[in-house]
Amino acid sequence: MSHLSTKGVTVGALALCALTLTGCSALNDQLHHEVSTHADTRADLQSPPAWMPADATDISSAAGTAAKKRSSAPTTVVFTSSDGVTADGCTTVPRKSAPSVTISGAPDAYAAETVLRCGDWSLTSEKDRWVAWTPNTGDDRS
Question: Is 0.85 topped by the overall pTM?
Answer without folding.
Answer: no
